[in-house]
C-alpha cells in the first residue's frame, strides 16, 4: 500500500481492470466527496486541520476532496503502483506502455498538502501516518521533503518511526537541493531515503543554424518547423516591447516582447526558474515561430518542456555558440526539428545534479541517501485538473517530471513486491535487501560496480 498526496482517480493508471479483490485486512475507506474508490484505488483520505490552523484567513482552498490539484500525487502514486496503460505518451513523445513498480498492487492516497504552494504541516502528516497505520498499509511512499530538524521535532520523523514500529516500510524522497553537500532530507535511520538518477532515454530535437552547424536540444513539444525552411533568428532582447524593460525581454516574460519585432522569427530566450513553458507562450503570443532556450550558467539543468510551439533547450556551451553566431552574422537563420525519443543514451544512470547530497547534517554518522532510482524525465499519470501553466490551459493524462519525488515511488513499488513475496520480512530486512542487491551498471564501461 502506498501513500501520496492526492490523486486523479479517472486516470487509466488507477483502473481496477484485472486487479484482485480488496484485501480482507484493509480497514481504510474513501472519504473524498466527489469520487468513489475501486479495487485498485482502495483508499482516499484527506488531512487538513493543520493547514487550517496555520492559515485561518485562507478561504480559497477546498478541503472536501482528495483529488490531485498539482499533478504530483497522481504521478508518484502511478509510478509506485499504477496499472498497465498502453500507448501512454506526453504529447506523442516517449510513447509506450506505462506501469508502476507494483502494477497489480492496491493503492491509497493520503492527501496532506494544500494550496498552490503545496504546504504540508506536521499535524496533517502525523494524522496521515496514524491513519495509514490503522488502515493496514504495507508500504508508505512519502515524496515529501523539507529542511531537516531534530528527529523528535519532525512530524515526518515521528510518523515514519511509528509506521516502521508497526512493520510498515517508509520510503522517502532525499530532496532536490543538490549538488551542494549536506542537503539531503529525510535522514532518519529507520527510513529508506532515495536519490534521483538519470535514465537512458531522452527527448531530443535539433537546432540547425544558417552556417549549417547542428546543435542538440531537449524538448517535449509536439510541434516542429517545416524541414526545408530556415527562419530569422533573433535574441529576445532585440525583440523588446517599447514599454518593457530589457531584463524581462531577456527572459521572455509575459508582455515583454513586441509583435512587430518577433513575428515569423525564432527567438532565443534565457531560462529562468519561474516557468519555462510560459516563455514559449509569450513567444507564440507575439507571432514567433519557435524558441531556443539557453542557460546563463553551466550548472543549470537542460530539461525538456511541453512547449506550445517548436522549441529546444540547449546546454550552456551551445547557447553561447548561438549568441556568438547571432552577434557575428548579418542575417542569422535557424531551424528547429521535431522531437525524437532516443534510447540507449550514455552515460546512464548518473546522479541528477539537483538530487540532494549527503552527508547528513543532523548526525554525520548516518549515511544518506540510501539508494538512487530513476528520477529524471519520468513519464507517469498526471492530474487533468491541472493546466500546464498560468497562460497554457492544455491538459495531459501523462507528464514527464523530474525530482527525487519521482525516484521514491520506484523504490516503494519494489518494496511492495518484496513485501508480497516475503510478508514476514521486517522493514529493516526489506531495506537491507534492496540496498545490498542494487547494482550500478555503467553503460559506457559495460561493467557492474
TrEMBL record:
<dbReference type="GO" id="GO:0006508">
    <property type="term" value="P:proteolysis"/>
</dbReference>
<dbReference type="InterPro" id="IPR000209">
    <property type="entry name" value="Peptidase_S8/S53_dom"/>
</dbReference>
<dbReference type="GO" id="GO:0009610">
    <property type="term" value="P:response to symbiotic fungus"/>
</dbReference>
<dbReference type="GO" id="GO:0004252">
    <property type="term" value="F:serine-type endopeptidase activity"/>
</dbReference>
<keyword id="KW-0720">Serine protease</keyword>
<dbReference type="InterPro" id="IPR015500">
    <property type="entry name" value="Peptidase_S8_subtilisin-rel"/>
</dbReference>
<dbReference type="InterPro" id="IPR023828">
    <property type="entry name" value="Peptidase_S8_Ser-AS"/>
</dbReference>
<keyword id="KW-0052">Apoplast</keyword>
<dbReference type="InterPro" id="IPR045051">
    <property type="entry name" value="SBT"/>
</dbReference>
<dbReference type="GO" id="GO:0048046">
    <property type="term" value="C:apoplast"/>
</dbReference>
<keyword id="KW-0378">Hydrolase</keyword>
<comment type="function">
    <text>Required for arbuscular mycorrhiza (AM) development during AM symbiosis with AM fungi (e.g. Glomeromycota intraradices).</text>
</comment>
<keyword id="KW-0964">Secreted</keyword>
<keyword id="KW-0325">Glycoprotein</keyword>
<feature type="domain" description="Peptidase S8/S53">
    <location>
        <begin position="29"/>
        <end position="437"/>
    </location>
</feature>
<comment type="similarity">
    <text>Belongs to the peptidase S8 family.</text>
</comment>
<dbReference type="InterPro" id="IPR034197">
    <property type="entry name" value="Peptidases_S8_3"/>
</dbReference>
<protein>
    <submittedName>
        <fullName>Putative tripeptidyl-peptidase II</fullName>
    </submittedName>
</protein>
<dbReference type="Pfam" id="PF00082">
    <property type="entry name" value="Peptidase_S8"/>
</dbReference>
<keyword id="KW-0732">Signal</keyword>
<dbReference type="InterPro" id="IPR036852">
    <property type="entry name" value="Peptidase_S8/S53_dom_sf"/>
</dbReference>
<keyword id="KW-0645">Protease</keyword>
